[in-house]
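Researcher: Hi, I'm a grad student and pretty new to this. My advisor asked me to get structures for two proteins we've been looking at. I'm not sure of the right format, so I'll just paste the first sequence and hope you can take it from there.
Model: That works fine. Here's the first sequence with its structure tokens right after it:
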Amino acid sequence: MRVLVLGMGKTGKLVASVAAERGHSVNVLDAKENAGASALTPPFVSGFDVVIDFTTPEAAVQNMRACLATGAKMVIGTTGWYDKLTDMKSLAERKQAGLLYGTNFSIGVQVMLRLAKTMGEDLKKAGYAFSIAETHHASKLDSPSGTAISLSKVVEAATGATAVPVESKRDGDVMGLHSLIAASDADRLVLTHEAFSRRGFAEGAVRAAEWLSSRSGCYDFQSVFNEI
């Protein structure tokens, strides 16, 4: 495939490296080269099979508006923009584009979300209170993390709770540490996922791009990861 990677942060660089390892042709644009999505003209975007975005919430929305309008296929690893999700889905559908987004492209995290659903369903009437703790690197812009928000939504749906409290910390270069805690007067159950590197996120995003390259429509990675 011809892959365009938007974002030259640590994850974006790794995504480009993984894509090249998997035999794809890769072009990377950093923030300066693509200020305000200025580089994403229709002729330029048409030269790629898939666009992968690991930028910032504001930049991701600008990039989606530019690329999806051309009917492009986009994998969005950036989080913090989901207040615009309805608009982006509508644009993708109108233009018969492809949009695949996710709060976390790690397969391990996706399994954690499934286990969280089971925990919520099995413990909802057993006197347990749920909470979430997450820690990420100091440069992460959104708080709480998109993964923590996904966890809370899963547990709220499973238990009927109105809100699951989330404690967020930003520290050093922590890749991602998420814990779901269920506590009662008798005991405590903790489900934890700890990322040791960004490699799992990068590989998941590239595999998602390979999967999306032959499809149109809108997809949440959480719903399709087991096909990817």
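Researcher: Oh nice, that was easy. Here's the second one.
Model: And its structure:
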Amino acid sequence: MAQVKVLLIEDNQDLSRNIGEYIESQGAVVDFAHTGELGVQLALEQFYDCVVLDVMLPKMDGLAVCKLLRTEANRHIPIIMLTARDTLDDKLSGFSLGVDDYLTKPFALEELWVRCNALARRHLLNSEHTLRLGEGDKALSLNNQTQHIERAGSPLTLQPIPFKILRLLMEHHPRALSRSELCDRIWGDEPTDSDALRSHIYQLRKAIDKPFPSPIIKTIHGIGFALDIEG
């Protein structure tokens, strides 16, 4: 299973370092943002299993960040809010904007990690079992549980890695995924041959595109890969 990937949006450098070191010691991958603006940019451009978000940020505070992510993101990103504000009204304000969990300062690093990991896993379990995109010749469906795939009603067979690539492309459609992002989501920190992704993309195209008149696996030069499917 790929590592849990966390985005930490916190302007306190010491606290940020302490949280990051502890979460990384638990085997997770952590990216850091010290402003709300950078946090929004990273969260929308990259894939994260969980965002740990401080309320008190300069210029754009955590509530504004959460509101933007809920408006702009093409998927639900689990968010844990860190705050010194512990009144019910403060928490209700956050929940009304889409915060998934709250942790008030001061807190134990162990508790933050347990909540973060649980939220990431729960979101994965609650995801739709079947992903569906497109119509007609480009109608594509993928069942996460049974790993059954169909294009235009015809069942297809994929090996595990091409299956993961297709699932990631469907989950993030219409956004393109970079080569580095795909490698990170599939292999994590495990070393892999530089041509491995290219080989698996070839196998995916062979199964998904070759039997059909219109290809749907699209290479976007300088960026990565996306699905050429409307809707």
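Researcher: Is there anything I should tell my advisor about the second?
Model: You could mention this: The mean pLDDT is 87.
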